[in-house]
Amino acid sequence: MKNNLKQFRNDLNLSQEELASKTGVTRQTINSIEKGKFDPSLSLVFKLLKVLECSLNELFVYEHH
């Protein structure tokens, strides 16, 4: 799933490590989500939305297949 995670993270001057710490996951998890290789769990999505102060539609781009 495409996302704007890196853009929102950079806008807040957060490193992958800092965002990982704030959401209770590893830096590798954040990296994998940014690269579109991993779809986060619903609970992680809500943590990301809270930390990044954005909406679901802003963070993730749903593509029809």
* Beta-strand segment tally: 2
Strand content: 5-15%
What is the terminal separation in angstroms?
A: 11 Å
Largest sheet: 2 strands, antiparallel
Strand order of the largest sheet: 1-2
What's the helix count? 5
Percent helix: 55-70%
Overall average pLDDT? 96
CATH second-level architecture: Orthogonal Bundle
CATH homolog superfamily: lambda repressor-like DNA-binding domains
Main structural class: mainly alpha
What is the helix/strand order? EHHHHHE
Runs with pLDDT <50, length 5+? none
Count of domain modules: 1
Radius of gyration: 11 Å
Shape descriptor reads globular
What's the CATH first level? Mainly Alpha
CATH topology: 434 Repressor (Amino-terminal Domain)
Structure description:
- There is one protein chain.
- The protein has 65 residues and is mostly helical.
- The protein has a single domain, classed as 434 Repressor (Amino-terminal Domain).
- Helix content is 58%, strand content 6%.
- It contains 5 helices and 2 strands.
- The protein has a two-stranded antiparallel ribbon.
- Helix 2 packs across helix 3 (27-34).
- The longest helix has 11 residues, at 42-52.
- The radius of gyration is 11 Å and the shape is globular.
- The mean pLDDT is 96.
